Amino acid sequence: MKLSFRFAIAASATMLAAASYAAEPIVVGVSIAQSPPGSVVQGTQVKDGVDIVVKMLNDKGGVLGRPLKVIYEDNQGIPEKGRAAVEKLVNRDKVVAVTGGHQSSVCLAEIEVAHRGKTPYVNTNCWSDDIRTKGYPEVFNPGNYNTRVSSAMAETIAALKVKSVVAFAENTDYGIGQAKLLGDFLKKLAPETQYKYVALDRAGKDFTPAVLPLRGSPPELVVNIMLPPAAYILMNQLYEQGVAPGPKTIFYDGAGIADYPDFWQNVKEAGKYMLAFGLYHPAMPMPDLGKQVGDLYQKQSGNEPNRLIFQAADSVLLIARAIEKAGSTDGAAIIKALKEGEFEETRGKFRFSQDSGYSYQQWVEIPYVTYQLTEENQPISKTTLIQVPGQPLMIDKVLKPTK
User: What's the pTM?
Assistant: First the structure.
């Protein structure tokens, strides 16, 4: 009898598990760049982070006893393609929420569709403050934002006491927005510093006409506000022309590109001595869940995790937790849960601000670091930390090439 009872229990458990996975899946839409001219390297990282978390959730029984399913759409980094992608996901695929956005111009187009359809939209990596200032109740922002980057960079530039700065910004909402904000913050924090920005075509292949005028009188600091592949081209041309990094000029990246898997193979010597704003460093404190996701990514890819892995993971986790908290896949219920709840995911505790402006439905206190690459092919874990969360800048650690 006891043996039969055990078999019955085991059979019941198997049937329950089977029933769970036979249940109708909860479908989430993910719009990313999977082909040019968009940032394919970013899209790949977002997909990797999403896939890791979806498997983790489904291995534990899914969400509300239902498997989580993801439908990917390629937006090519083009606003019109992003709009069409989200329209398909919302209207044809009937997704409960949309996430994955990682280029601001595309996000700005996509959130119009989400707003019109009252569909929850979790912004993974679009930095433009315009996305927040729209004030759309459907849009939540657990990633970085331009005001955060520009204020942090201005503090570092002021501490460096440089007198001349030139920024190269891609001609997108993200690039122009961040370049203008950086100028505004420098006026307050370093009023004696001369600053200008130059807008470049993000699809450009040759930036030497913009670089050559700096050879005769190089600024003390050059800022990058461009995404790959354009950022890599710009870095190589600045280096080849002897502008930056050099004995007179610091090269400072504000686009968070140093931890991309293809960074070193594309920039080589041009990346050495680069100062970088970053959203992840292995020395940063992380919850156990973050360590678990990072370990899984490293095991699968052979690369150190970067911030996009965690941002993508958190985007999906926030949707899943909100569904669980609401006990429903209804859009309004998910939005309410995200608006009112506190969540602890891979990067820490989230609560979305309800203040108007750039902080609307934004995780305001997103942690960041400043570090410097000092050797070619250097992994992020070996870089020199210039600033860590909660501690002052250590400007004396910044190095320049001697020749």
Answer: 0.86
